């Protein structure tokens, strides 16, 4: 049975208690820690930068996936890669030279992910898919936590799965945005390997249990 991966996103947490949140994630069954960096240009929101990444590196025991929602991400790859980052995910829409950016990420010793906005078709990945560790399908328009899951994403997951098989590629399919205990099984059944979840975990009374419940579809 495949190991369905869950990556809690700390975007929706109370930053006054970031250490406590990271402790919870460390104790949980989460596979990765998902960290959203936003620049107020690529998306209409600004999240945080290197001082927070430094704190995360010191306290997280989970592999860190950095989701860069910034323009010209190539300008920051080297700086960000120094904070114990396992995977860097950039947006195809933010990269004029996506192939080159993917190679830069790998040359820094990180896994490479590419995220696609809800409207972006899979075609932009045609000639880079074999180089990718992860394709992250955005199931919301990026920028904010707590939005509703866009249902067309399910079809996109299925198409991506076939595309990856046809290309004989190895990329994981990750789904980011609006994921909760009610839709996670359908997401898994559509072919996803991993989900990112923020508000459904951290707005719940028991984040540890919420993480477990997202991982649970594999036991059904
Ligand atoms: C949105 C971010 C997501 C966000 C998910 O732009 O990329 O990672 O934190 O939050 P939820 O699960 O609340 O949609
Ligand atoms: Zn994200």
From TrEMBL:
Classification via Pfam families: Ribul_P_3_epim
Enzyme class, spelled out: isomerase
Native species: Autumnicola psychrophila
Gene (name only): rpe
HAMAP family to which the protein is assigned, alphabetical: RPE (MF_02227)
Full protein name: Ribulose-phosphate 3-epimerase
Role of this protein: Catalyzes the reversible epimerization of D-ribulose 5-phosphate to D-xylulose 5-phosphate.
Necessary cofactors: Co(2+); Zn(2+); Fe(2+); a divalent metal cation
Keyword field contains Metal-binding: yes
């Amino acid at each position: 049975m495949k190991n369905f991966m869950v990556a809690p996103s700390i975007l929706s947490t109370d930053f006054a208690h970031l250490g406590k949140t990271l402790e919870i994630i460390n104790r949980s069954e989460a596979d990765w820690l998902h960290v959203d960096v936003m620049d107020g240009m690529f998306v209409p929101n600004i999240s945080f930068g290197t001082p927070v990444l430094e704190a995360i590196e010191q306290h997280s025991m989970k592999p860190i996936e950095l989701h860069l929602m910034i323009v010209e991400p190539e300008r920051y790859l080297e700086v960000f890669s120094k904070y114990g980052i396992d995977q860097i995910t950039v947006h195809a829409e933010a990269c004029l030279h996506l192939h080159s950016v993917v190679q830069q990420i790998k040359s820094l010793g990180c896994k490479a992910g590419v995220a696609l906005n809800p409207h972006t078709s899979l075609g932009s990945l045609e000639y880079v898919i074999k180089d990718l560790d992860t394709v992250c399908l955005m199931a919301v328009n990026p920028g904010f936590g707590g939005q509703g899951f866009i249902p067309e994403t399910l079809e996109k997951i299925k198409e991506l799965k076939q595309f990856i098989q046809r290309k004989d590629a190895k990329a994981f399919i990750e789904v980011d945005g609006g994921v909760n205990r009610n839709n996670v099984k359908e997401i898994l059944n559509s072919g996803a390997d991993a989900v990112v979840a923020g508000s459904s975990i951290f707005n719940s009374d028991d984040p540890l249990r919420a993480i477990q419940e997202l991982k649970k579809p594999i036991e059904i």
